[in-house]
Specification:
The complex is a heterodimer of chains A (137) and B (328). With 137 residues, chain A is of the alpha/beta class. Chain A is 40% helix and 17% strand. In chain A, helix 3 (76-93) links the parallel strand 3 (60-65) and strand 4 (101-105). Chain B has helices at residues 17-23, 27-33, 50-55, 73-85, 94-98, 110-120, 173-185, 201-204, 236-239, 255-258, 276-287, 291-300, 304-308, 317-321, and strands spanning 5-11, 36-42, 61-67, 70-72, 86-92, 135-138, 142-145, 149-154, 164-166.
Chain lengths: 137, 328
């Protein structure tokens, strides 16, 4: 049996979470690898949450927010984007594979795309194998 | 008069800067010494051997400070013994609380570190490539041992139970004095807390824009300290010189900022921060203007992990899980 990754998804309640909902309504097929956590805004996702998810054994972390210009709080997603740029470089420099972490803009109308992203990310993580940080929290 | 407080001070894997900070208290230390009886201060000040410490009864020392991180088996052993012999144990300084500069060594493997130290460095003359070994039989009869290098750096509280924390590299003597006075007076907070004000560096910094009724603006240009001389009165972060003041405890009275140097976070995280480096990344990125600036920022600093975790890599979430030396 192929390895089934464990993905933690932080989904903005205005866009990506609605997108996931739509994916369900549209009966889109995607692997059951993602566990979604609804957050008020992708800008409220602290890098600490991501590191903690990875340290506690998630194989990958997906942060989903609104497209630029669509943020309910005007510029929350811009902040997310800047933070994740810095975080990505930081974990890479510390010796951790940054491909286990992904940032996507998915709107409430993009159910198909949500399913696609999860499928793609799952495949990528399957190639990477289990998270080296796994092994008890 | 009540009995004096029995006091112990251990230098683990540190540089003795914290000892200097304690001595820097000068008159205040002399006053405090009326209430303190130094029973152990090794290996720097008092001539007390480790075996004397081992011979003490459990809980004999009322108050012990440890400075420095745990880097070898000797540190490991003495810290554990000291914990047993002391009623209250205080992790003192950036190394003891967060890992300090030495913890950055965890980004490399033991082989890489040893090669750098004993082979590759420009000034090293070691043609036979002799490396330190924890054990050796010299001249066939002397069995010599050295403390062995541990796999990774640990903070004191990753090894034993710690009652209080004091950050800083080294801790500012004014605040050490306050901590010592609080201990002497028995006026202590709950176990496990930091003996600090809990305020951020920005709170005590004279450059804080809020002090001058100015607004904080997004930063459009990022500089390193070698890129020129910042304006002496304006907030460094506002000028684009990255400063960790917003997320660092300001028990130092913003000493570095007072001499035009940005904060690098030796004071330890403000309360509520779980991972100092991640919070730094978050704080810096949030003050930048746009994506391009963020890109410029990460390309300008060649090692983001060392930059954000300068004093706190050992206490970081990633370091506790990654095998040392995973880089490259």
């Amino acid at each position: 049996m192929s390895f089934s990754p464990n993905i933690v998804g932080f989904a903005c309640q205005w866009c990506t979470y609605a997108g996931a909902d739509l994916a369900g309504n549209l009966r889109c097929k995607y692997p059951p690898t993602i566990k979604l956590i609804r957050v008020p805004c992708s800008g409220s996702v602290e890098p600490e949450y991501i590191l903690e998810s990875l340290a506690r054994g998630a194989d990958g972390v997906l942060v989903g927010g609104c497209h630029y210009g669509d943020c309910h709080y005007k510029d929350g997603n811009h902040k997310t984007s800047r933070r994740m740029t810095v975080l990505k470089k930081m974990i890479e420099d510390a010796g951790f594979d940054p491909r286990r972490f992904r940032l996507e803009w998915i709107s409430g109308a993009e159910g198909q795309r949500f399913a696609q992203v999860v499928e793609e990310f799952t495949r990528e993580l399957q190639e990477l194998g289990p998270n080296p940080l796994k092994g008890g929290a | 008069m009540a009995d004096k407080i029995k006091f112990g001070f251990l230098l683990a894997g540190g540089c003795a800067g914290c000892e200097m900070a304690l001595v820097d208290m000068s008159e205040k230390l002399v006053d405090a010494l009326d209430h303190l009886e130094v029973v152990f201060w090794a290996p720097t000040v008092a001539d007390v051997k480790y075996k004397d410490l081992e011979a003490m009864e459990d809980g004999y020392i009322d108050l012990a400070f440890v400075d420095g991180m745990v880097r070898n088996t000797e540190n490991e052993h003495t810290v554990k013994v000291l914990r047993q012999k002391s009623k209250t144990l205080v992790a003192f300084g950036a190394c003891a609380t967060l890992g300090g500069i030495a913890a950055l060594g965890d980004i490399y493997s033991k082989e890489e570190l040893f090669n750098q130290a004993y082979k590759d460095t420009f000034g090293t003359d070691n043609p036979d490539g002799i490396m330190p070994e924890p054990q050796c039989l010299w001249e066939g009869k002397y069995d010599l041992t050295l403390p062995a290098f541990t796999n990774r750096v640990s903070t004191i509280d990753q090894l034993v139970d710690v009652d209080y924390f004091v950050g800083g590299c080294p801790p500012h003597h004014d605040f050490v004095a306050q901590a010592v006075q609080a201990i002497v007076a028995g006026n202590l907070p709950a176990k496990g807390s930091w003996l600090t004000s809990g305020k951020a560096v920005c709170d005590v910094c004279k450059r804080n824009p809020a002090e001058h009724d100015q607004k904080r603006l997004p930063v459009g240009e990022v500089f390193r300290t070698i890129d020129g001389r910042p304006d002496e009165d304006k907030c460094l972060l506002q000028q684009g010189y990255i400063c960790f003041g917003p997320v660092t405890q300001g028990d130092c009275q913003a000493s570095c900022l007072n001499v035009n140097i940005p904060c690098r976070g030796c004071g330890g995280p403000i309360p509520g921060v779980k991972d100092y480096g991640a919070r730094c990344a978050s704080m810096i990125a949030s003050s930048l203007k746009d994506d391009q600036t963020a890109e410029k920022f990460v390309s300008k600093f060649n090692d983001m992990a060392k930059f954000c975790y300068r004093y706190s890599y050992s206490a970081g979430i990633l370091n506790q899980k990654l095998t040392p030396g995973r880089k490259n």
